[in-house]
Specification:
6 strands, about 25% strand
């Protein structure tokens, strides 16, 4: 007599691989095939989908910086001077990521006027000679 489950699976050819699931870095891609024989003719245990890893060029990594430090003290005790503040690079840019902006800022500061003590002019004149 005839055994139904000996009928081979009739399968379509595999589809093309899908695009990688990511636009950069590591992802997955899949392909499928269809069951062409009627399901009533027996169980078909063939796989109908396959997946594999895919790798595209590395994703760009943008520069990352810490927050700005506090402004430094004014660099003079009287008159005009400047203060600076800094920030550190946490992550260097890679693979075409955004470059790092400035890491040091400088601004003017003005403290009380410098007072001239008695005899300052004479002292300056002696130093100039």
């Amino acid at each position: 007599f005839y055994v139904l489950d000996t009928i081979p699976c009739l399968l379509s050819p595999w589809s093309e691989w899908s695009d990688c699931s990511v636009t950069c870095g590591k992802g997955m891609r899949t392909r499928q095939r269809m069951l062409k024989s009627a399901a009533e003719l027996g169980d078909c245990n063939e796989e109908l989908e396959q997946a594999e890893k895919c790798m595209l060029p590395e994703c760009p990594i943008d520069c990352e910086l810490t927050e700005w430090s506090q402004w430094s003290e004014c660099n003079t005790s009287c008159g005009k001077g400047h203060m600076i503040r800094t920030r550190m690079i946490k992550i260097e840019p890679q693979f075409g990521g955004a470059a790092c902006p400035e890491t040091v800022q400088r601004t003017k500061c003005r403290l009380r006027k410098c007072l001239r003590g008695p005899g300052m002019e004479k002292r300056r004149w002696k130093e100039a000679r």
